C-alpha cells in the first residue's frame, strides 16, 4: 500500500491524506493461508498418484536434426485430433527420442533425462508430458499397416487438446513403440545461440496479466540473474543471459508472477548452447547416499552445494519440515491436475513458514517428484540442475531450510518440497534504502527523466522508522510525526509517502516521484511484522520538499504491494 502525507511550511496542524479506514487499511493484504487452514489442508484426504515405470541411462545422444517434417503416424494422429493439437519440430524431436529410448530400455526415460531431451531438442516449454503405447507386430508388416492397426484403437485424450504435441513410431523386430509428448505453451519465446562472449538473448511474450518476470541462468555450479531490457514493456520481455566461460550448455529459466499473486512459476525453460549439433547427456556423478531420503540427508547435500559456491550453511527447520511433508502430496496432486488455484493456496501454505522461528523477510519454494529413485543425492542433483532449484537452494541470505518428503505410496515415487527462508534482523536498512533509490533512478531514466538527488541527514524521520520497527508506533503515525519534525527543523514544506511491501524490487512507486522536473528525495527503510502474520514486510518512507505556497492536500494513492 502507498499512503501520502503533505505538510506545509507554515505552523499549524499537519494535513495528512491517508485515506479511509485509518492505519488498519494501510497494511498489505495477508496473502498467506492461516495456520489453521494450513493444518486443515495437510489433514485432508489425498488421491494417490500412480507410479511411473521409468528407466535410467548413464549416457544418451540427442541430435535435433531429422525432425522437421511430419511423419505418417503424426498425420494420422493429427487427423484424429481434428486440428486441436499444434505439432512442432521440437515436440516431434522429443517424441522421437522417447520412442527410441523406450525401444532400447523398455520404459520411458527418467525425469532428468526427459528434461535433457526436451532442452536438447530445442523446446522452451517448462513442462513436457510423456506417454507411450507399446505392442508387437509382425516384422514383415509395413509402417503403414502398423499405423492402420494402431489407429483402430486410437482415442485422443481430452487433456491433449489445445496444446503443443509430438508423436513418433519406432520399431525393432516385432516390437513397436508409439511415443507421444504434450505440453501447454506458456509463453511465445525465441532463444539465440550464445555469441562469442557467451551471451544468450531470450525474447518473448509473457502470459496475459503478468505483473513481474525474471530470468535466471546456470553459471558453472552457481546461478545468476539475467539482465532485463528495461525498454521492453510487459507483456513483452527480453533478457541477456551470460553463460560461464567453461560451460558449453546452460539451463535458462524465465519465471513470471501473475497480477495479484505472490508466487512465480516457470514459463520458459531452455537449454542454452554455444554450438549447434548433437548433444551428449551424461548422468552426473555424485557422492554416495543412502537408499532413502530424509531432511537431514538433503540438508547435508544443500550445505555441500552452498560451500562449493562459497555460501554459508543453512540450518534445518524441523517443525516446518514436518509441515512440508504433510502438504507435499497435496501440492503434487494439485500440480498434476493443473489446478492453479489449489496449487497457489498450497504453495503459499508451504512458503508461509508458520512453523519457522524468526521474522521471515523472504522465502523460496521448489518441488520435485522423481520416479524410480529413493536416493537423496539423486533428488538433489535433479533440483540443482534447474535455475529455479538453484535459486531456492543457493539464495545467499537464506538461513533456514525446510524439507518435506511425501510418503512414496501417495506420490508414486520420490517427491519432496524444499523451502528456504531469509530473515529480518537488526540491520539498519541503509543498503535497502540504496536499492530503493536505484530502483527509482531506473524508473525515472526509463521515462527520460533526470536522476533523483538523495537527501541525507533525515535523522528525525529515521528515528520514527526505528519506532515502527520496535512496534512502538504505527507506520502512518510515524510518517506524519517524522514529516512534522523534519519540516519544523528545516523550515520548509515537505511531502511524504509510505509504502508497505514484501518486495522492494517490484513495489509500487508513488506516481508523483515519476513526474517531470528535478527530484530531491529522502528515503528511509525499516521492517515490521503485524500481529498474526507469518512474514514481516518492508516499510519504505519517501520525503520530498514541497511548494510552500501549496494549499491542496493530495488524494491518497492506493496500490497493492504484492
Strand and helix map with partners:
Layout: E1 2-7, E2 15-17, H1 35-43, E3 54-55, E4 59-62, H2 72-81, E5 85-87, H3 89-105, E6 108-109, H4 111-120, E7 129-136, H5 143-151, E8 163-172, E9 175-183, E10 188-191, E11 199-205, E12 210-219, E13 222-225, E14 227-228, E15 236-242, E16 249-258, E17 265-273, E18 279-282, H6 295-308, E19 315-316, H7 318-336, H8 340-352, E20 360-370, H9 376-384, H10 387-393, E21 400-405, H11 408-411, E22 414-423, H12 430-446, E23 453-454, H13 459-469, H14 475-490, E24 494-501, E25 520-528, E26 537-545
Parallel strand pairs: 3-6, 5-8, 19-21, 23-25
Antiparallel strand pairs: 1-2, 1-24, 4-18, 7-9, 8-9, 10-11, 11-15, 12-13, 12-16, 14-15, 16-17, 20-22, 21-22, 24-26, 25-26
Helix pairs in contact: 1-7, 2-5, 7-8, 13-14
Q: Can you tell me about this structure?
A:
The chain has 562 residues and is an alpha+beta fold. The protein has 4 domains: 148 residues, no CATH class; 153 residues, 3-Layer(aba) Sandwich (Pathogenesis-related Protein p14a); 127 residues, 3-Layer(aba) Sandwich (Pathogenesis-related Protein p14a), CATH 3.40.33; 95 residues, Immunoglobulins (Immunoglobulin-like, Sandwich), CATH 2.60.40. Helices cover 29% and strands 29% of the residues. Strand 10 and strand 11 form a beta hairpin. Helix 2 runs parallel beside helix 5. The C terminus is likely disordered.
Taking strands numbered 1, 2, ... along the chain, how are they ordered across the largest sheet?
2-1-24-26-25-23
The outline comes out as: elongated
Task: Write the CATH homologous superfamily of the largest domain.
Answer: CAP
Please tell me the CATH architecture of the largest domain by its name. Answer: 3-Layer(aba) Sandwich
Structural class: alpha+beta
Within the CATH hierarchy, at the fold level, what is the topology of the largest domain?
Pathogenesis-related Protein p14a
Average pLDDT score: 87
How many discrete structural domains? 4
Amino acid at each position: 500500500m502507498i499512503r501520502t502525507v503533505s505538510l506545509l511550511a507554515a505552523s499549524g496542524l499537519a494535513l495528512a491524506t491517508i485515506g479511509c479506514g485509518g492505519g488498519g487499511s494501510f497494511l498489505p493484504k495477508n496473502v498467506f493461508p492461516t495456520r489453521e487452514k494450513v493444518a486443515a489442508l495437510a489433514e485432508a484426504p489425498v488421491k494417490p498418484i500412480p507410479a511411473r515405470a521409468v528407466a535410467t541411462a548413464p549416457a544418451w545422444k540427442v541430435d535435433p536434426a531429422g525432425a522437421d517434417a511430419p511423419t505418417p503416424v503424426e498425420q494420422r494422429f493429427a487427423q484424429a485430433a481434428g486440428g486441436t493439437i499444434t505439432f512442432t519440430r521440437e515436440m516431434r524431436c522429443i517424441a522421437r527420442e522417447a520412442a527410441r529410448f523406450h525401444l532400447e530400455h523398455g520404459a520411458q526415460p527418467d525425469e532428468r533425462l526427459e528434461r535433457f531431451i526436451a532442452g536438447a531438442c530445442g523446446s522452451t516449454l517448462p513442462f513436457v508430458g510423456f506417454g507411450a503405447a507399446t505392442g508387437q507386430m509382425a516384422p514383415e508388416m509395413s509402417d503403414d499397416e502398423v499405423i492402420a492397426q494402431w489407429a483402430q484403437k486410437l482415442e485422443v485424450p481430452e487433456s491433449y487438446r489445445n496444446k503443443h504435441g509430438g508423436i513418433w513410431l519406432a520399431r525393432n523386430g516385432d516390437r513397436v513403440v508409439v511415443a507421444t509428448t504434450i505440453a501447454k505453451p506458456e509463453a511465445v519465446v525465441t532463444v539465440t545461440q550464445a555469441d562469442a562472449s557467451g551471451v544468450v538473448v531470450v525474447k518473448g511474450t509473457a502470459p496475459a496479466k503478468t505483473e513481474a518476470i525474471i530470468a535466471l541462468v546456470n553459471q558453472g555450479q552457481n546461478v545468476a540473474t539475467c539482465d532485463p531490457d528495461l525498454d521492453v514493456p510487459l507483456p513483452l520481455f527480453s533478457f541477456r543471459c551470460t553463460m560461464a566461460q567453461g560451460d558449453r550448455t546452460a539451463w535458462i529459466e524465465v519465471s513470471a508472477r501473475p497480477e495479484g499473486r505472490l508466487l512465480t512459476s516457470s514459463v520458459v525453460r531452455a537449454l542454452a548452447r554455444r554450438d549447434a549439433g548433437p548433444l551428449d547427456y551424461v548422468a552426473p556423478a555424485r557422492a554416495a547416499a543412502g537408499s532413502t531420503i530424509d531432511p537431514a540427508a538433503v540438508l547435508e547435500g544443500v550445505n555441500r552445494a552452498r560451500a562449493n559456491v562459497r555460501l554459508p550453511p543453512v540450518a534445518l527447520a524441523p517443525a516446518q519440515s514436518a509441515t512440508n511433508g504433510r502438504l507435499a502430496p497435496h501440492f503434487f496432486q494439485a500440480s498434476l491436475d493443473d489446478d492453479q488455484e489449489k496449487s497457489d493456496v498450497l504453495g503459499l501454505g508451504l512458503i508461509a513458514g508458520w512453523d519457522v522461528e524468526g521474522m521471515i523477510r523472504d522465502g523460496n519454494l521448489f518441488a520435485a517428484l522423481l520416479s524410480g529413485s529413493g536416493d537423496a543425492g539423486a533428488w538433489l542433483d535433479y533440483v540443482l540442475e534447474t535455475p529455479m532449484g538453484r535459486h531456492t537452494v543457493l539464495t545467499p541470505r537464506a538461513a533456514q531450510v525446510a524439507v518435506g518428503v511425501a510418503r512414496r505410496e501417495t506420490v508414486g515415487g520420490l517427491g519432496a518440497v524444499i523451502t528456504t527462508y531469509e530473515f529480518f534482523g537488526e540491520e539498519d536498512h541503509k543498503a535497502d534504502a540504496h536499492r530503493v533509490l536505484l530502483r527509482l533512478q531506473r524508473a525515472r531514466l526509463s521515462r527520460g527523466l533526470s536522476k533523483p538527488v538523495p537527501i541525507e541527514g533525515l535523522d528525525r524521520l529515521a528515528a520514527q522508522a526505528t519506532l515502527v520497527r520496535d512496534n512502538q508506533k504505527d507506520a502512518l503515525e510515524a510518517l506524519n510525526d517524522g514529516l512534522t519534525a523534519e519540516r519544523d527543523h528545516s523550515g520548509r514544506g515537505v511531502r511524504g509517502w509510505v509504502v508497505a511491501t514484501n518486495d522492494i524490487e517490484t513495489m509500487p512507486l508513488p506516481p508523483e516521484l515519476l513526474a517531470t522536473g528535478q527530484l530531491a528525495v529522502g528515503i528511509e527503510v525499516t521492517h515490521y511484522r503485524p500481529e498474526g502474520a507469518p512474514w514481516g514486510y518492508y516499510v519504505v518512507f519517501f520525503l520530498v520538499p514541497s511548494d510552500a505556497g501549496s494549499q491542496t492536500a493530495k488524494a491518497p494513492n492506493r496500490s497493492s504491494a504484492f
